[in-house]
Design a protein that fits this description.
heterodimer, A: 292 residues, mainly alpha, 13 helices, B: 281 residues, 2 domains, 12 helices, 77% helix
């Protein structure tokens, strides 16, 4: 009996160091943040308890509404553009060709690079006198030459395309692993039944890779709702507020406007929002999962 | 039949070659820019002289460059080593315990997984000042460990469940204690899990920009990514406050090469480890 007890404490000791780290650097700040979101904390001192004032102000705050709308736009646009492309690349790589590992590796390389490096590369290409406009001039499309990062309407979509470029390899690798797990016999028998390629995809492939779709969408959505680096470095949220995201707004509220209590409020609202979106998404796509 | 089959695969290969070439063109731009004199940076058809290393000389001459390289290496190594050891122990104990207290602990890790770092940023900054650790690399390491270890614990816990209990029971009958059992039997068996954890998280630590931007903001202990940012603002500008893209490109290339090489050398294990982790986690 006593040996069982000591074994219990040994297992607790195994867990303790990592649990302490989580408690001190995630849970404590989180609870503290909730408390501070009800105060007028400026980062140095708290003079009074303001109740729900921060929350009420936040939902009236035009800069927050715009940042949230931008963040949602980034997320939705990325999901729509990235997934068909990643699936297409994965199925090309899943066919019987020579050197598929080489292609997989090449397309994955941008994923390994830091977002700050990615931002600098694309600034060189997309700046007004940069490579892309030079290319447009060369092929006779001068009339389309614009400042791609300085255009209020186009800058957000340009940023999304850059993120697709950076992250395509990651989603593709997940889809490739899933496609390799679909048994070939299923396609064989569908072929006998005279199924078209689209029907194969719709009724065999897609249902069987749905588990992976759930995971990939979860990863894409949860990281996009936190998007910070690329717009911060490339456009600083501009032109105007065209590419301002919620996390950039939190950073500005905390470190530029010295409204720390307000910043924690925004952080908490963002967290609640991401939990709702992610759980809805996993529920919806999870319900479509099948196993054979 | 056979010739038709190879025709389509030739077509696919062609598509993939063209796609990859366009896809990697931006990286070529970076390499070329790092060897160009400033006035030719945006000249797309100007072939640089690869003997022109002035841009690299400027990078190495930055007083904070070598320090930032060493810092990045130290931060990555310590964070990875600590998280592999701490998370494997916790994940193992969690997977092998049925008591209610352990179920509560598991819930704590799950909750920590959904708290985004941004919600905690300001409080952690204050905590750093209070602990007198702000602007110290060790504080960044602690924050990395705290905010990512839940993920690693879950991965280890999932992998532990696939290890047969009989192996452990046999060892315990032989009088092997928990700790010895873990270090001699379980930890080696968890190597695929360690692979997954390292494969996924090393890129977060090497490439992170927001963490150093906030917690190492005084510029005395730059990481490579913060060095790029500060270099672009200070040294990497020409006299008219315009970015000097040549040296900035050289620095970007130097900061990316180690992690790209790490990926290329370990790609097979990294890619399979990553997808395995996502399915189990």
């Amino acid at each position: 009996m006593s040996s069982q007890r000591s074994d219990y404490w040994k297992r607790i000791l195994f867990i303790l160091p990592s649990l302490l780290l989580v408690a001190l650097f995630v849970l404590y700040p989180f609870v503290q943040g909730i408390l501070y979101s009800f105060t007028n904390w400026d980062g140095i001192s708290i003079s009074r308890f303001v109740g729900l004032e921060n929350y009420i102000n936040l939902f009236k705050d035009a800069s927050f509404k715009k940042a949230l709308a931008n963040t949602i736009f980034f997320t939705v646009a990325l999901v729509i553009i990235m997934n068909p492309l990643a699936l297409l690349m994965a199925s090309l790589l899943n066919s019987k060709i020579i050197g598929k590992h080489v292609f997989r590796t090449l397309i994955y390389i941008p994923t390994t690079i830091s977002l700050i490096v990615v931002s600098n590369i694309w600034t060189i290409i997309l700046t007004f006198n940069g490579y892309f406009n030079k290319l447009l001039e060369l092929i006779g499309l001068e009339k389309y030459v614009i400042d791609w990062l300085g255009n209020y309407d186009l800058a957000p979509i340009v940023i999304v395309l850059i993120i697709v470029w950076q992250g395509l390899g990651n989603s593709m690798v997940f889809y490739l692993a899933a496609l390799q797990g679909v048994p070939a016999e299923l396609y064989e028998s569908a072929k006998i039944d005279g199924a078209t390629k689209w029907n194969n995809f719709r009724y065999i492939t897609l249902p069987l890779i749905m588990t992976t779709v759930t995971v990939v969408l979860f990863l894409q959505i949860s990281s996009m709702l936190k998007i910070f680096d690329i717009p911060y470095i490339m456009t600083s949220g501009g032109p105007g507020d065209a590419t301002m995201t919620v996390t950039m707004l939190i950073y500005n509220q905390a470190f530029k406007f010295n409204t720390a209590g307000y910043a924690t409020t925004t952080g908490i609202v963002l967290m609640v929002f991401s939990i709702i979106v992610s759980s809805l998404q996993t529920k919806i796509t999870g319900a479509k999962e099948v196993s054979y | 039949m056979k010739s038709k089959y190879s025709k389509s695969s030739v077509l696919i290969t062609m598509i993939l070659i063209i796609f990859s070439a366009i896809y990697l063109f931006p990286l070529l731009v970076l390499i070329l820019s790092s060897f160009k004199e400033e006035q030719y940076i945006f000249e797309a058809f100007h072939m640089p002289d690869f003997g022109y290393i002035e841009n690299y000389v400027k990078v190495f001459a930055s007083p904070t460059f070598w320090g930032s390289l060493v810092n990045t290496l130290i931060i990555c190594t310590i964070t990875l080593v600590c998280s592999v050891f701490l998370a494997s122990m916790a994940g193992y104990a969690l997977a092998r315990s049925k008591e209610r207290s352990f179920k509560t602990i598991r819930l704590v890790y799950m909750m920590a997984l959904v708290v985004p770092a941004q919600a905690n940023m300001m409080i952690l900054y204050k905590l750093g000042i209070f602990l007198n650790l702000i602007n110290q690399p060790v504080y960044l390491i602690l924050i990395y460990l705290g905010s990512n270890i839940s993920y690693s614990v879950m991965i280890y816990s999932a992998f532990t469940k696939s290890i047969h209990r009989e192996i452990e029971e046999a060892a315990r009958i032989d009088g092997c204690g928990r700790l010895k059992l873990f270090t001699n039997v379980i930890f080696p068996l968890l190597r695929p899990a360690s692979g997954t954890v390292i494969a996924t998280t090393i890129f977060w630590y090497w490439n992170d920009f927001q963490g150093p931007l906030i917690y190492l903001s005084d510029g005395k202990h730059n990481t490579l990514m913060l060095e790029i940012y500060n270099f672009k603002e200070i040294i990497g500008t020409t006299s008219f406050a315009r970015t000097a893209w040549g040296p900035v490109s050289a620095l970007c290339l130097i900061a990316s090469l180690p992690i790209i090489l790490f990926f290329l050398l370990n790609q097979k294990r990294l890619l399979s480890g990553m997808t395995a982790g996502a399915v189990k986690g």
